[in-house]
Design goal:
alpha+beta; 6-stranded mixed sheet
Length: 335
Amino acid sequence: MTRFYSFSDNSSHNRGMPVIYKIAEGMIDPGPCPRCGIDGREPSGDLKVVLPKQRGKAWPDAMACGGYPLLVVSERFVKAMQECGIRLELGGKITFTGPCPRGLSLDEAPQYFWVDGRRHFAGRMDFEASGYVDVRFCEECGYRSDNVAETHRRREGPPPLPYVFEYDASRGHDLFTTDLSPTAFFATDRVLECARKHRLINLRFTPVEAGDASWSKGIDYLGKRWPPYHPLRRSEGRTLEEWVALLRKPKKRYEAKCAILDLGPEAAPAVPTLISMLEDEDLGLRRTAARLLKGLGKMGVPLGPKGQAAAREFEEWFQQTLGRPATPAEEEHNS
Protein backbone atom coordinates (compact mmCIF):
# COMPACT_ATOMS: atom_id res chain seq x y z
CA MET A 1 0.00 0.00 0.00
CA THR A 2 1.40 3.40 -0.99
CA ARG A 3 1.92 5.87 1.86
CA PHE A 4 1.69 9.60 1.25
CA TYR A 5 3.46 12.52 2.90
CA SER A 6 3.37 16.28 2.67
CA PHE A 7 6.81 17.34 1.45
CA SER A 8 8.92 20.50 1.71
CA ASP A 9 12.25 21.82 2.90
CA ASN A 10 12.81 21.65 6.67
CA SER A 11 14.44 25.03 7.20
CA SER A 12 11.92 26.20 9.82
CA HIS A 13 13.00 23.31 12.08
CA ASN A 14 16.63 23.08 11.02
CA ARG A 15 18.74 26.07 12.01
CA GLY A 16 21.70 27.11 9.95
CA MET A 17 20.31 26.22 6.53
CA PRO A 18 20.54 29.13 4.08
CA VAL A 19 17.28 30.39 2.63
CA ILE A 20 16.44 32.49 -0.40
CA TYR A 21 15.66 36.02 0.73
CA LYS A 22 14.11 37.22 -2.52
CA ILE A 23 13.95 36.52 -6.25
CA ALA A 24 15.79 39.30 -8.08
CA GLU A 25 15.15 38.19 -11.66
CA GLY A 26 12.96 35.64 -13.40
CA MET A 27 9.45 36.45 -12.21
CA ILE A 28 6.89 37.42 -14.83
CA ASP A 29 4.07 39.76 -13.87
CA PRO A 30 1.03 39.83 -16.14
CA GLY A 31 -0.77 42.03 -13.62
CA PRO A 32 -3.73 41.22 -11.37
CA CYS A 33 -6.46 38.87 -12.55
CA PRO A 34 -9.32 40.95 -14.04
CA ARG A 35 -11.89 38.76 -12.27
CA CYS A 36 -10.51 38.02 -8.78
CA GLY A 37 -7.75 40.64 -8.57
CA ILE A 38 -5.09 38.20 -7.36
CA ASP A 39 -1.45 38.99 -8.12
CA GLY A 40 -0.48 36.96 -11.18
CA ARG A 41 3.30 36.87 -10.59
CA GLU A 42 4.93 33.53 -11.26
CA PRO A 43 8.43 32.19 -12.00
CA SER A 44 9.62 31.48 -15.51
CA GLY A 45 12.87 29.81 -16.52
CA ASP A 46 16.17 30.47 -14.76
CA LEU A 47 16.02 32.62 -11.63
CA LYS A 48 18.49 34.95 -9.95
CA VAL A 49 18.04 35.06 -6.20
CA VAL A 50 19.46 36.83 -3.15
CA LEU A 51 20.58 35.05 0.02
CA PRO A 52 20.69 36.66 3.49
CA LYS A 53 23.98 37.17 5.33
CA GLN A 54 23.09 35.05 8.37
CA ARG A 55 25.49 32.27 9.23
CA GLY A 56 24.93 28.97 7.46
CA LYS A 57 26.22 25.54 8.43
CA ALA A 58 25.72 23.57 5.22
CA TRP A 59 24.31 23.76 1.71
CA PRO A 60 21.01 21.83 1.93
CA ASP A 61 19.37 19.56 -0.61
CA ALA A 62 16.13 21.54 -0.32
CA MET A 63 16.19 25.28 0.30
CA ALA A 64 13.39 27.53 1.54
CA CYS A 65 12.38 30.39 -0.72
CA GLY A 66 11.02 33.53 0.93
CA GLY A 67 10.43 35.44 -2.28
CA TYR A 68 7.87 32.91 -3.61
CA PRO A 69 6.90 29.46 -2.25
CA LEU A 70 9.06 27.44 -4.63
CA LEU A 71 10.50 23.98 -4.08
CA VAL A 72 14.22 24.60 -4.60
CA VAL A 73 16.45 21.52 -4.71
CA SER A 74 20.12 20.76 -5.19
CA GLU A 75 21.74 18.96 -8.11
CA ARG A 76 22.44 16.11 -5.68
CA PHE A 77 18.70 15.85 -5.02
CA VAL A 78 17.98 15.79 -8.74
CA LYS A 79 20.52 13.06 -9.43
CA ALA A 80 19.32 10.99 -6.48
CA MET A 81 15.72 11.11 -7.70
CA GLN A 82 16.76 10.25 -11.24
CA GLU A 83 18.74 7.26 -9.99
CA CYS A 84 15.66 6.07 -8.08
CA GLY A 85 13.45 6.46 -11.15
CA ILE A 86 11.49 9.42 -9.74
CA ARG A 87 10.42 12.02 -12.28
CA LEU A 88 11.25 15.67 -11.78
CA GLU A 89 10.00 18.51 -13.96
CA LEU A 90 12.50 21.32 -13.43
CA GLY A 91 11.47 24.90 -14.08
CA GLY A 92 14.98 26.30 -14.36
CA LYS A 93 18.30 26.91 -12.65
CA ILE A 94 18.89 29.04 -9.57
CA THR A 95 21.76 31.55 -9.59
CA PHE A 96 22.87 33.37 -6.45
CA THR A 97 23.52 37.10 -6.95
CA GLY A 98 23.64 38.43 -3.42
CA PRO A 99 25.88 38.00 -0.40
CA CYS A 100 26.93 34.55 0.73
CA PRO A 101 25.80 33.31 4.16
CA ARG A 102 28.63 33.59 6.66
CA GLY A 103 30.50 30.33 7.09
CA LEU A 104 29.71 29.10 3.57
CA SER A 105 31.32 29.65 0.18
CA LEU A 106 29.48 30.28 -3.08
CA ASP A 107 32.30 28.45 -4.84
CA GLU A 108 31.32 25.30 -2.94
CA ALA A 109 27.57 25.73 -3.44
CA PRO A 110 25.90 23.05 -5.57
CA GLN A 111 23.78 23.96 -8.54
CA TYR A 112 20.17 24.49 -7.49
CA PHE A 113 16.95 24.18 -9.48
CA TRP A 114 13.31 24.95 -8.86
CA VAL A 115 10.71 22.24 -9.39
CA ASP A 116 7.70 23.26 -11.47
CA GLY A 117 4.71 22.08 -9.48
CA ARG A 118 2.35 22.95 -12.31
CA ARG A 119 3.85 20.03 -14.24
CA HIS A 120 3.68 17.67 -11.25
CA PHE A 121 -0.12 17.62 -10.91
CA ALA A 122 -1.34 14.15 -9.92
CA GLY A 123 -4.16 14.48 -7.42
CA ARG A 124 -7.48 16.10 -6.59
CA MET A 125 -8.12 17.24 -3.06
CA ASP A 126 -11.25 16.33 -1.13
CA PHE A 127 -11.55 19.80 0.36
CA GLU A 128 -14.53 18.97 2.60
CA ALA A 129 -12.83 15.96 4.20
CA SER A 130 -9.59 17.95 4.51
CA GLY A 131 -11.31 20.76 6.41
CA TYR A 132 -11.23 23.54 3.83
CA VAL A 133 -14.22 25.87 4.06
CA ASP A 134 -15.90 27.80 1.21
CA VAL A 135 -13.38 26.72 -1.42
CA ARG A 136 -13.70 28.61 -4.69
CA PHE A 137 -11.72 28.68 -7.91
CA CYS A 138 -11.49 31.78 -10.06
CA GLU A 139 -12.98 31.04 -13.50
CA GLU A 140 -10.42 33.32 -15.11
CA CYS A 141 -7.06 32.40 -13.56
CA GLY A 142 -7.89 29.26 -11.54
CA TYR A 143 -6.73 30.74 -8.22
CA ARG A 144 -8.11 28.85 -5.22
CA SER A 145 -9.46 30.73 -2.21
CA ASP A 146 -11.20 29.69 0.99
CA ASN A 147 -12.41 31.05 4.31
CA VAL A 148 -9.01 31.31 5.97
CA ALA A 149 -10.19 31.65 9.58
CA GLU A 150 -12.74 28.83 9.42
CA THR A 151 -10.37 26.60 7.48
CA HIS A 152 -7.69 27.12 10.13
CA ARG A 153 -10.15 26.31 12.90
CA ARG A 154 -11.37 23.12 11.24
CA ARG A 155 -7.98 21.85 10.11
CA GLU A 156 -6.29 22.41 13.46
CA GLY A 157 -9.08 20.60 15.30
CA PRO A 158 -9.08 18.96 17.70
CA PRO A 159 -8.62 16.50 16.27
CA PRO A 160 -6.52 17.86 13.38
CA LEU A 161 -7.82 16.90 9.97
CA PRO A 162 -5.74 14.99 7.41
CA TYR A 163 -5.04 15.82 3.81
CA VAL A 164 -7.47 13.71 1.80
CA PHE A 165 -7.06 13.45 -1.95
CA GLU A 166 -7.48 11.13 -4.90
CA TYR A 167 -4.07 10.23 -6.29
CA ASP A 168 -3.70 9.54 -10.01
CA ALA A 169 -0.78 7.10 -10.29
CA SER A 170 -1.15 7.01 -14.07
CA ARG A 171 0.48 10.44 -14.28
CA GLY A 172 3.75 8.89 -13.14
CA HIS A 173 4.63 11.32 -10.35
CA ASP A 174 5.86 10.20 -6.93
CA LEU A 175 6.56 13.83 -6.06
CA PHE A 176 3.33 15.62 -6.93
CA THR A 177 0.93 18.49 -6.41
CA THR A 178 -2.86 18.66 -6.28
CA ASP A 179 -5.48 21.31 -6.89
CA LEU A 180 -4.68 22.60 -3.39
CA SER A 181 -1.76 24.55 -4.87
CA PRO A 182 0.97 24.08 -7.49
CA THR A 183 3.48 24.96 -4.74
CA ALA A 184 2.23 22.45 -2.12
CA PHE A 185 4.01 19.16 -2.75
CA PHE A 186 3.20 15.64 -1.63
CA ALA A 187 5.33 12.52 -1.93
CA THR A 188 4.98 8.76 -1.97
CA ASP A 189 7.13 6.46 0.14
CA ARG A 190 9.43 6.01 -2.87
CA VAL A 191 10.64 9.60 -2.42
CA LEU A 192 11.12 9.04 1.32
CA GLU A 193 13.16 5.90 0.71
CA CYS A 194 15.26 7.64 -1.94
CA ALA A 195 16.03 10.52 0.44
CA ARG A 196 17.19 8.01 3.06
CA LYS A 197 19.25 6.01 0.60
CA HIS A 198 21.15 9.06 -0.65
CA ARG A 199 21.33 10.81 2.75
CA LEU A 200 19.70 13.98 1.45
CA ILE A 201 19.43 16.73 4.06
CA ASN A 202 16.89 19.35 5.08
CA LEU A 203 13.83 17.54 3.75
CA ARG A 204 10.55 17.40 5.67
CA PHE A 205 8.14 14.49 5.31
CA THR A 206 4.97 14.34 7.42
CA PRO A 207 2.21 11.73 6.98
CA VAL A 208 -0.85 13.21 5.29
CA GLU A 209 -2.91 11.68 8.12
CA ALA A 210 -1.26 14.19 10.49
CA GLY A 211 -2.55 17.18 8.54
CA ASP A 212 -0.42 20.33 8.60
CA ALA A 213 1.55 19.13 11.66
CA SER A 214 3.34 22.51 11.80
CA TRP A 215 4.59 21.50 15.26
CA SER A 216 6.58 18.60 13.86
CA LYS A 217 10.11 18.38 12.51
CA GLY A 218 8.83 15.63 10.27
CA ILE A 219 9.87 12.02 9.95
CA ASP A 220 13.41 11.15 11.00
CA TYR A 221 14.14 9.57 7.65
CA LEU A 222 17.90 9.47 8.33
CA GLY A 223 17.53 7.83 11.76
CA LYS A 224 18.21 4.24 12.82
CA ARG A 225 14.54 3.30 13.16
CA TRP A 226 13.10 1.96 9.93
CA PRO A 227 10.36 2.02 8.93
CA PRO A 228 10.06 5.32 10.77
CA TYR A 229 7.24 6.34 13.10
CA HIS A 230 5.55 9.74 13.23
CA PRO A 231 2.76 10.69 15.68
CA LEU A 232 -0.50 11.75 14.08
CA ARG A 233 -1.39 14.08 16.96
CA ARG A 234 0.66 16.47 19.05
CA SER A 235 -0.60 14.91 22.27
CA GLU A 236 0.60 11.39 21.46
CA GLY A 237 3.21 9.83 23.71
CA ARG A 238 2.06 11.12 27.14
CA THR A 239 -1.03 10.99 29.32
CA LEU A 240 -3.09 14.08 30.13
CA GLU A 241 -1.70 14.05 33.68
CA GLU A 242 1.87 14.02 32.35
CA TRP A 243 1.20 16.94 29.99
CA VAL A 244 -0.37 18.97 32.81
CA ALA A 245 2.63 18.31 35.05
CA LEU A 246 4.97 19.57 32.31
CA LEU A 247 3.25 22.98 32.43
CA ARG A 248 5.34 23.67 35.54
CA LYS A 249 8.55 23.33 33.52
CA PRO A 250 9.10 26.58 31.56
CA LYS A 251 11.10 24.88 28.79
CA LYS A 252 8.33 22.31 28.24
CA ARG A 253 5.39 24.64 28.84
CA TYR A 254 4.62 25.57 25.25
CA GLU A 255 4.77 21.96 24.09
CA ALA A 256 2.52 20.87 26.96
CA LYS A 257 0.02 23.67 26.34
CA CYS A 258 -0.29 22.72 22.67
CA ALA A 259 -0.69 19.04 23.53
CA ILE A 260 -3.48 19.76 26.02
CA LEU A 261 -5.31 21.90 23.47
CA ASP A 262 -4.84 19.09 20.96
CA LEU A 263 -6.73 16.78 23.34
CA GLY A 264 -9.68 19.17 23.30
CA PRO A 265 -12.69 17.91 25.31
CA GLU A 266 -10.59 14.91 26.38
CA ALA A 267 -8.67 17.39 28.57
CA ALA A 268 -11.76 18.24 30.68
CA PRO A 269 -10.42 16.38 33.77
CA ALA A 270 -7.52 18.88 33.89
CA VAL A 271 -9.78 21.90 34.51
CA PRO A 272 -9.60 21.81 38.35
CA THR A 273 -5.78 21.64 38.22
CA LEU A 274 -5.64 24.50 35.71
CA ILE A 275 -7.86 26.61 37.97
CA SER A 276 -5.54 25.93 40.90
CA MET A 277 -2.60 27.10 38.76
CA LEU A 278 -4.25 30.54 38.55
CA GLU A 279 -2.99 31.12 42.11
CA ASP A 280 0.61 30.12 41.37
CA GLU A 281 3.50 32.56 41.92
CA ASP A 282 4.78 31.94 38.37
CA LEU A 283 3.20 34.58 36.11
CA GLY A 284 3.93 32.54 32.99
CA LEU A 285 2.19 29.50 34.45
CA ARG A 286 -0.84 31.59 35.48
CA ARG A 287 -1.21 33.02 31.98
CA THR A 288 -0.76 29.62 30.36
CA ALA A 289 -3.44 28.12 32.62
CA ALA A 290 -5.81 30.98 31.71
CA ARG A 291 -5.02 30.52 28.03
CA LEU A 292 -5.80 26.83 28.30
CA LEU A 293 -9.07 27.49 30.10
CA LYS A 294 -10.05 29.94 27.39
CA GLY A 295 -9.18 27.46 24.64
CA LEU A 296 -10.93 24.52 26.30
CA GLY A 297 -13.98 26.65 27.01
CA LYS A 298 -14.28 27.45 23.33
CA MET A 299 -14.33 23.71 22.67
CA GLY A 300 -17.31 23.26 24.97
CA VAL A 301 -15.48 22.07 28.09
CA PRO A 302 -17.33 23.20 31.27
CA LEU A 303 -15.09 25.62 33.21
CA GLY A 304 -17.21 26.75 36.15
CA PRO A 305 -17.44 30.40 37.26
CA LYS A 306 -13.79 30.81 38.23
CA GLY A 307 -12.51 29.21 35.02
CA GLN A 308 -14.83 31.33 32.88
CA ALA A 309 -13.68 34.51 34.65
CA ALA A 310 -10.03 33.60 34.09
CA ALA A 311 -10.68 32.92 30.40
CA ARG A 312 -12.37 36.32 29.97
CA GLU A 313 -9.57 38.14 31.78
CA PHE A 314 -6.97 36.44 29.63
CA GLU A 315 -8.76 37.40 26.41
CA GLU A 316 -9.03 41.04 27.56
CA TRP A 317 -5.33 41.12 28.51
CA PHE A 318 -4.23 39.54 25.22
CA GLN A 319 -6.27 41.91 23.09
CA GLN A 320 -4.97 44.91 25.04
CA THR A 321 -1.42 43.66 24.46
CA LEU A 322 -2.02 43.34 20.71
CA GLY A 323 -4.17 46.45 20.42
CA ARG A 324 -6.69 44.42 18.37
CA PRO A 325 -8.49 41.04 18.36
CA ALA A 326 -6.13 38.09 17.98
CA THR A 327 -6.02 36.05 14.78
CA PRO A 328 -6.48 32.26 15.08
CA ALA A 329 -2.75 31.71 14.47
CA GLU A 330 -1.81 34.26 17.17
CA GLU A 331 -4.14 32.61 19.65
CA GLU A 332 -2.62 29.21 18.87
CA HIS A 333 0.97 30.34 19.39
CA ASN A 334 0.42 32.60 22.38
CA SER A 335 1.33 31.01 25.69
